[in-house]
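Here's what a typical entry looks like (Peptide methionine sulfoxide reductase MsrA):
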Amino acid sequence: MQQIYLAGGCLWGVQEFIKYVPGVLNTVVGRANGTTYSTKTEYDGYAECVCVQFDETVVSVAQLIKHLFEIIDPYSVNQQGHDVGLKYRTGVYSCDSTHLDAAKDYICSRVDAERIAVEVLPLTNFIPSDDEHQHRLTRIPKDQYLCHIPWELLHKYRRTKQE
């Protein structure tokens, strides 16, 4: 099992989307690359993200990044939909340098690479969000209006994974 951290604005939406991608085994929402180890502190530079545990024999890092690009505006800086601020930046983080290389290679292979604002950095810190944020849109679907990702897109892979 491999692990990578994906940031794409609203962490609820990123989790609801990515957890249904074939090969994804588990997801945990949280904060990447902040400076503290608590969710009870002031903003400390973190990016809202989803820790994605995946089976690399089913889905590659490049495929996961491609899926992330389905739900984000890769050109937007510190904003996805109505979520604005540094914590809503897009990014790919990992402790595994091969994951970061694969993400950079994917981005560089695109014709629009020079316009892409997705940061690709080593993971320095991860804090899981409080329980109320874990699988929020599965538990409370009416909160989807708070997310920039349309409901149909959030569940694009749901049927495939359940079969």
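The longest strand covers residues 24-32.

More examples are in the samples folder.
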